[in-house]
Design goal:
The chain has 77 residues and is mainly β. It is built from no helices and five strands.
Length: 77
């Protein structure tokens, strides 16, 4: 969504599955993220992302969750 010409927000949700051969393991992965892009000029952008990842497994005690924060600068000429 463009709040202004120089400020953009993006939201995402992803889902995936993995079935493993030779075993009874099935994994589900989920991810939700929000990006914010601030355009200082046509040539310089600052981008931040906050993401939460989950893995749900049929194997006991194999579930995981992680929070990822990223910050980047785009310079284009």
């Amino acid at each position: 969504h463009d709040f202004r010409r120089w400020l953009t927000a993006i939201g995402r949700f992803t889902y995936g599955t993995a079935d493993y051969r030779g075993g009874n393991r099935t994994d589900q992965t989920f991810s939700a993220s929000a990006d914010l892009i601030y355009k200082l000029s046509r040539d310089v952008w600052i981008k931040g992302q906050l993401r939460r990842d989950w893995l749900v497994s049929s194997i006991p005690n194999a579930d995981t969750a992680a929070t990822v924060v990223m910050l980047g600068v785009r310079v284009q000429n």
